[in-house]
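Per reviewer request, we include the raw input and output of the structure prediction for the construct analysed in the revised manuscript.
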Amino acid sequence: MSKFNILFKITGSIAAYKSAYLISKFVQAGCDVKVVATESALKFIGTATLEGLSGNPVYTDSFAPAHVMSHIHLVQWADVTVLAPATANTINKFANGISDSLLTSLFLAHDWSKPYLIAPAMNSKMYSHPATQESIARLKSWGVTILPTEVGYLACGDVGEGKLLNSDLIFDEVMKAYASKNKSVARKKILITYGGTVEDIDGVRFISNMSTGKTGVAIAEELFLSGNMITTLRAKNSVETKFNIESETFSSFEDYRFKIENLLAVKQFDTIIHLAALSDYSPTFLEKDNNAFPLPMQSKLVSDSDNIKILFKKNVKVIDSLKNLSKNPNVIVIGFKLTNQVAESDIPNIIKKMFADSNVDYVVHNDISGRTSSGEQTNFTIYDKSLSTTKCISVLNLAEAIEKITEANNDIVH
């Protein structure tokens, strides 16, 4: 994820303990987090926990030594502000301009060019009270994003509206808010293809590969959060991005070929990241008991023969034609090369051949030995045409390195 500054506010709700998970998740995503808590909030979750998770001191007092101007400095520092959980008391104070603590003073000093998200948490009757609903409506009209509450079992024993939104959904909404803010300065249009093709044999059997799409998603989300205009062409069975990214899907090799040719004919991209794991061969006929059946078969293959044969045809290398198909003659193409049990000394020649055949600008090499048991790929090497290399241990490292490549090579707004 892109690194940015989050001002995380906590008020005195019993749901305050859930803020620990959220803060930890933001920090793991590479964000810098500073926490502002009310005195009531600290009765539910301790300062030591919040400082340990965020790596920064917790702010509570407007007049603490060296923090007298915190309400200005923290607002200037933050890229996004989040209040989770937000009590009815604080929401109503915000809506009426009451400034009786550091947390409420920060709201009055808020820079409205930056996102402000509030996740309410309270008893159902407090949530539905006309004063609270009127305050929520007023805050929305000012530009505050009020996240929905969930219906469920509440701390007081009631069941109903007012439960704090799921922490993972709050995380997603914060990331989306930051990405939307950056959209106003988006400069690059990037096509990212990922996932593996599926070649049908019959209605229930197919030939595919090990691609999950996880690497492609990580790259797409990193570049999206940086404000780029992302389009993905992904396999139907691959993982999806959590963000509202323009996307099309493919299944077979021929389906992929048709979709990418159409995309490149109607849209102009600055960068193409060709990560899709395409079938080198597609099945065309199945031989069984001296009879030939065109593939895919319309009905399920009956498994009553000892042997069958499948004839495959070789597919063209789509990556070889991307620059010719692109509406942008200066498009940057980044290709991927996966190997399996290849000697280290042979890799440079493999990369050279890909540069020669495909006319790509960069090649990302990785070996199947770098795949974890959960399907994440690790240990990537980026090559440029001079065979200079950049090593990337993780997918996040790779996404950040590709982002630098796109920034360095694309200076034209289309």
